[in-house]
Amino acid sequence: MAGRIAGGVARWRGPTFGAVLLVFGAWLVLAVPAVAEDALPPEQAGDGEEVDEDGFEEQEWDRALHRFELAEGVDVVGEEQTAEAGADDTLLDVAKRYAVGYEQIRMANPGVDTWLPGEGAEIRIPSRYILPDAPREGVVINLAEMRLYHYPEDENVVEVFPVSIGRMDWSTPLGRTEVTGKIQDPAWYPPESIRKQAEQRGETMPREVPPGPDNPLGRHAILLDISGYLLHGTNRPWGIGMRATHGCIRLHPRDIDYLYDQLAVGTSVKIVNQPFQAGWSADGLLYLQAFPFFEEDEPKRAERVELAVESVARALGDAVHRVDGGQVRAAADEQDGRIYRVSRTNAVPRWGAEE
């Protein structure tokens, strides 16, 4: 079965048994068993953005790379890892193997050449996370770190995926929404705004891109209750983990393929922008993680430090704990995605026993 996403219309191609066609003014909704499709306005019906890197080789998908057990009161999951680059590896190759995004692995390895790290080079894998300050249900997307967190229903786990998000002039909206429909093998109809951009580059863009290897939406699209915005795949996955889309959330094909089956219509989706995330580890110590502010949101240093302190204060709540102000300021200054221990060396762990 295939769907199509057009300017203002989402249509269904496939069996029509049991389908009910509803038309309300300019909106068209096709209700079919297990799939509800929303209409999309023409200016934002999908992305259509291009990524320079073309093509990729399929490899076995290791779900364990994304999946972490949750524990009561614990906000830090995962572990830091290192990997050895092969002779032909780029940082993007290593990122793909370990399920992290482009910006994440680049920040974690500031002295490493992105395109030629060199055989045997030690690559730091940023695979330890502080969970966003949001309800642990459904999907939570933190734009600042370009990650999606999925909390499967009735399971005490979190699954973490790198994503690409809207660039400066096509920002991804914040707020709470939900999944309203899903389309497999969507066709894409480039909106007029994107067609004009192509014309300015001297390129001709077709009015319809059918399902297939040339479709920038990939094989799966998950519709949200924010008109025109989707979670979708891509036909060029090397750009995952960048600020590169026209507002949609783009995932690696293997990740959207998995989430397509996991996310039911009605699943909660919360989109936040949290450059600072503070939380408790399993050993009862407090940590802070800082990501770069978007260029258009960059505050002055004093305000940045204040925001870092506020994040730590929220994590502390009413707990009495010795905090290292120097580490808080260091995280606010560096904004490099690293996880900084902000508990002082003589701090008593929150869970009771002294270090």
From TrEMBL:
Q: Which pathway is it part of?
A: Cell wall biogenesis; peptidoglycan biosynthesis
Q: What is the lineage of its organism?
A: Bacteria, Pseudomonadati, Pseudomonadota, Gammaproteobacteria, Chromatiales
- Chain segments annotated as transmembrane: none
Read off the Pfam families from this record. YkuD (PF03734)
- What species is this protein from? Halorhodospira halophila (strain DSM 244 / SL1)
Q: Hydrolase: is it a keyword of this entry? A: yes
What family does this belong to? Belongs to the YkuD family.
Output this protein's name. ErfK/YbiS/YcfS/YnhG family protein
Q: Which residues form the active site?
A: H232 (proton donor/acceptor), C248 (nucleophile)
Q: Where is the signal peptide?
A: none
Q: Which GO terms describe its cellular component?
A: extracellular region
Q: Which InterPro entries match?
A: LD-transpeptidase, LD_TPept_cat_dom, LysM, Transpep_catalytic_dom
Which positions fall inside the L,D-TPase catalytic domain?
137-272
What SUPFAM superfamilies would the database entry show?
L,D-transpeptidase catalytic domain-like (SSF141523)
The processes (GO biological process) annotated in the record are: cell wall organization; peptidoglycan-protein cross-linking; regulation of cell shape
Per UniProt, what is one GO molecular function of this protein? Answer: glycosyltransferase activity
The entry's keywords: Cell shape, Cell wall biogenesis/degradation, Glycosyltransferase, Hydrolase, Peptidoglycan synthesis, Transferase
